[in-house]
UniProtKB/TrEMBL annotation:
<protein>
    <submittedName>
        <fullName>Putative wuschel homeobox protein WUS</fullName>
    </submittedName>
</protein>
<keyword id="KW-0804">Transcription</keyword>
<dbReference type="Pfam" id="PF00046">
    <property type="entry name" value="Homeodomain"/>
</dbReference>
<feature type="domain" description="Homeobox">
    <location>
        <begin position="1"/>
        <end position="55"/>
    </location>
</feature>
<dbReference type="GO" id="GO:0003700">
    <property type="term" value="F:DNA-binding transcription factor activity"/>
</dbReference>
<dbReference type="GO" id="GO:0099402">
    <property type="term" value="P:plant organ development"/>
</dbReference>
<dbReference type="GO" id="GO:0003677">
    <property type="term" value="F:DNA binding"/>
</dbReference>
<dbReference type="GO" id="GO:0005634">
    <property type="term" value="C:nucleus"/>
</dbReference>
<dbReference type="InterPro" id="IPR009057">
    <property type="entry name" value="Homeodomain-like_sf"/>
</dbReference>
<dbReference type="InterPro" id="IPR044555">
    <property type="entry name" value="WUSCHEL-like"/>
</dbReference>
<keyword id="KW-0539">Nucleus</keyword>
<keyword id="KW-0371">Homeobox</keyword>
<keyword id="KW-0238">DNA-binding</keyword>
<comment type="similarity">
    <text>Belongs to the WUS homeobox family.</text>
</comment>
<keyword id="KW-0217">Developmental protein</keyword>
<dbReference type="InterPro" id="IPR001356">
    <property type="entry name" value="HD"/>
</dbReference>
<keyword id="KW-0805">Transcription regulation</keyword>
Length: 55
């Protein structure tokens, strides 16, 4: 998965501005649905993005 610029912007906004660190399965599905407007993405992509940014 190669995130688009817009997908990265939204993920960073959620992480840094909204304090989302460990989204629930339901949140991951909502985030994925929102990000799908900007390109292909799956729930596991969102999950791993947050995992990698917590490290």
């Amino acid at each position: 998965w190669t995130p688009t610029t817009e997908q990265i912007r939204i993920l960073r906004e959620l992480y840094y501005s909204n304090g989302v660190r460990s989204p629930t399965a339901e949140q991951i599905q909502r985030i994925s649905a929102r990000l799908r407007q900007y390109g292909k993405i799956e729930g596991k992509n969102v999950f791993y993005w947050f995992q990698n940014h917590k490290a």
